[in-house]
Amino acid sequence: MYSYDAFDEAFVRDRVRQFRAQVERRIDGSLTEEEFRPLRLMNGLYLQLHAYMLRVAIPYGTLSPAQMRQLAMIAERWDRGYGHFTTRQNIQFNWPRLRDVPDILDALADVGMHAIQTSGNCVRNVTADHFAGAAADEIADPRPVAELIRQWSTDHPEFQFLPRKFKIAVSGSPRDRAVTRAHDIGLRMVRGADGEPAWEVSVGGGLGRTPMLGQVIRPALPEADLLPYLEAILGVYNLRGRRDNKYKARIKITVFEGGLEAFRNAVEERFAQLRGEWGGADRAMLERIRAMFAPPAWKERDDGDYLAFRAASPAFRSWTDTNLHPHRAPGHVIVTVSLKAPGATPGDATAAQMRTLADLAERHGYGELRVSHEQNIILPHVHRADLPAVWRALREAGLATANAGLASDIIACPGMDYCALATARSIPIAQGIARRLVESGLERETGPLGIRISGCINACGHHHVGAIGILGLDRGGVETYQITLGGDPTETAAIGEKTGPGFAADEVVDAVERLVRGYLTVRRDAQESFLHCVRRLGLEPFRGFLYGAEAADAA
Amino acid sequence: MSRRFVPKVVSANDLLEGHAVWLTEDDRWSPDMGEAELLEDEAHAQIRLLFARAQPHIVGADLVDAAPSPTGPVPLHFREAFRTHGPTNYHHGKRAEGLTPRGRIPGAQDGV
Questions:
Q1: Which SS3 state, helix, strand or coil, does residue A126 take?
Q2: B94–A49 C-beta distance less than 8 A
Q3: Within an 8 Å CB–CB cutoff, is residue B86 touching chain A?
Q4: pLDDT digits (tens, 9 = 90+) for B85-95
Q5: Is the pLDDT confidence value at A63 over 60?
Q6: Would B93 be classed as within a structural domain?
Q7: H-state helical runs in A43-126
C-alpha cells in the first residue's frame, strides 16, 4: 500500500492548519458564508438538510486496518457511531459539528487520509476496481497509476477551477468493475501491440441529467504517455468546457457538442506540445509508487476444514456461493463483505463493524481492505482455510449477508433522508425492495440482478446503469419513482431505458416485485440473467409486467 | 392579478451545529418550527429574510411555504417536513431531540 512521504504529510497537515484558521475566521465573522463555502467544499465539508456532512476520500478504495480503525474512532468521537460508504469509494460522516472538523481532519492526517478534492470543480477522488491487485482476471494492479493521478491532480494549479467536477476511474482488468465508461475519463488496461500493458482511454462519460457513455479517444496509450495525455485532455476541457451553463459544463457535453474527432484533434495537438516537457519524472515516480504496491508474500497452505465446513453449514455454503471471487494466488479468494443486510441502510457501517473488519484484515487478510463503489467492503486477500473463521466473525458482527451481486445488494444514495439536493428518498425504497425480495424467496431464484436507486437527477445511486434503475423525483410535492431497465455498468456498458410513468412511494416495491416475477416467467433458463433477458426481449414484456398488458399494448 | 401570497417561514441552518433552525417573531432562532413566525405578508417576509441573512452564525436562510396551525406553522412541502423530522432510517435529528415533527412525511407517523 502507498504510505505518505514527507511531502504528502506536510501538504496534508498544512491544509488542515489552513482550514482550522478558516473555520475560526468564519466563526468570528471575518469570513462570510459566501467566502467560506468554497473553502469548506475544497475540504469535503457540505451542509446538508439536518447537519454538516464530511466526505473523506478513500483513494482508489484502499484502506489499511489502522485507517479503518481511525474511521471508527471518528464515527464514535465526533459523529453518531457510524459512517456511510459511498458510490465513489468515499466515506461520509453525517453529523459533524463545524468546530470539530479541523480536529477530524487532523485525526485523518494521522493515518494518511484527507478530505481534499472530494467536492468542487476539480479532479475528484480517483476510483478503481475494488478487486484491484487481487483479481485473477486482471492484467496488472491499476492502483499505482491511480495513486500517480492522485498526486498529479491534487492541488494541480491549472485544474483547481475547472468548468465542473471531474471524475476519473481506472481498471486493470478487461472485466470492468469500476464503471469506467460512466466517468469523465475512464482508463482500462489493455495489452498494446508490443504485448506491454497500455491504457484504453475513454472520455466524456457521465450519468446525471444527461447520461452518456464515454467514447474511446485512444485505444492503447503507452503507459509512459499517460500523465501528459491526461493533462492534454484536462487542458482542452478547461478551455473549451462551457462555463455559461452549469448543466452543460461537464466534459461529456464538450465532447458531444463538438464531436469526438474535433476534441481528439485538439487533445493530440496539446499532447504533442506537452509530451516533451515532462522529461520522465512521472515515470520515475510511478516506479517508486509501484514498489509500494508489491503484492504480499502469499502463504501456501492447504484448505484446512474449508470444504468440510462448507458441507456442514448451509449458511456458510450460501455465503461462499455469492460473496467470493477468484483470486490470482493459489488457495486465496476475494471476499465481499455485504453492507446490505435486508432492511439496513446500503453502505452504512457502525464503528464496531469497522473494527471487526480491521481486525479480520489484519488477522486473515494481509492487512488490506477495500471499499467498493457498490457500497460494500472487500477483504481482497483471504486464504480459503481462513474462510470459516472470517465468516463466523462477520456473522457475529451482522456482516455475513450472502447477497453480493444479488437483488438485495442495492446501490442507493442517501436521498432526501440527508441530502440537500435530493428530490425524494432512496433509503426506504432500497430497504423495502430488499426485504420483499428476500422474504418472498425471489432473490435466490432470480440470481444476479443490479438494482440501483438515486434520489435525484444527479444520479449518485448510478440508476442509469442498473439492470433495474430507480430515480426518485418530486412530482407536485409527492415522491415519485421512475423505473429504467437494461442499464449495465460493466465492459458491455449501457444506459437503461425509461419504462413509462412513475410510481408512488408505496407502489414501487410492488412494481419491482412484478418485474422480477415477470422475468422468472419469460427467461430462457436459470442461466439467463435479468439483464440478458431484457436485452433479448426488449422492454415491451417488462412494461406489461409493470403496467399491465393493456398499457403495454397501448404504448 | 398577482397570485395570492403563500405564507412563509424563514428557514436556515445553525452555523456551528449545522442543525435546521427557524426565525421567531422575537428574533430568536428556534430548532422547533412550531415557534417560527408565520409571515403572511410578502413585503414583511422579504424584510424578515433580509434580517435573517444578515445574522451571524446562520447559514442558508430562505423562505419556505408554511400553513398556520393551532401549534404554530406547518411546512407545506415534504422537504421541509424532513428538516423538522430528521432522517427516517435512524432515530437521529429532531425526533431524537424530543421535538415533534411537523408536516407530512409519506409513510412516517404524521407530525402536527
A1: coil
A2: no
A3: yes
A4: 999 999 999 99
A5: yes
A6: yes
A7: 65-78, 101-110
Neighbours of A501 (CB within 10 A): 12
**Residue B111 CB neighbour total at 10 angstroms:** 21
pLDDT of residue B3: 78
Chain B residues within an 8 Å CB radius of A345: 89-90
Task: Summarize the confidence of residues A34-40 as an average pLDDT.
Answer: 96
Return the residue matching grid coordinates 435546521. Answer: B20
Asked which of A5-14, A167-176, A187-196, B67-76 is least confident by mean pLDDT, the reply is: A187-196
- Taking only Cα atoms into account, the Rg of chain B, rounded to an integer number of angstroms, comes to 14
The answer to whether residues A29 and A46 touch, using CB atoms and an 8 Å cutoff, is no
Please state at what angle helix A314-323 crosses helix A387-396, rounded to 10 degrees: 100
Distances in whole angstroms, Cα of residue A474 to Cα of each of A128, A477, A504, B43? 33, 6, 10, 29
- Residue A503 touches partner B, C-beta closer than 8 Å: no
In order of A121, A299, A307, A385, the CA distances from A310 in angstroms are 50, 22, 5, 11
Kindly tell me the burial class for residue A422, based on how many C-beta atoms sit within 10 Å of its own C-beta (0-12, 13-18, 19 or more). Answer: buried
Residue type, B104: R
Structural domains of chain A, ranges and CATH numbers in brackets: 6-110 (3.90.480.20), 142-292 (3.30.413.10), 306-396 (3.90.480.20), 411-554 (3.30.413.10)
Q: For residue B51, what are the domain limits?
A: 8-97
Q: For chain B, say whether A39 makes contact (Cβ under 8 Å).
A: no
Q: What is the DSSP string of A455-492?
A: SSTT-TT-GGGSSEEEEEEEETTEEEEEEEE--B-STT
In a domain, B86, yes or no: yes
What's the pLDDT at B110? 54
pLDDT, tens digit, 9 for 90 and up, residues A507-528: 999 999 999 999 999 999 999 9
ipTM of the complex: 0.95
Rounded Cα distance, A375 and B97, in Å:
29
Interface test with A, best of B84, B92, B97 (most A CBs within 10 A): B92
pLDDT of residue A341: 97
Report how far residue A323's alpha carbon sits from residue A338's, in angstroms, rounded to the nearest whole number: 8
Q: Is residue B53 part of a domain?
A: yes
CB atoms under 10 Å from CB of A307, counted, come to 10
How many domains are there within chain B? 1
Q: How far apart are CA A205 and CA A168, in angstroms?
A: 10
Determine the residue type at A338.
Answer: S
Q: Is residue B42 part of a domain?
A: yes
Torsional class of A172: left (φ above 0), alpha (ψ -120 to 50), beta (otherwise): alpha
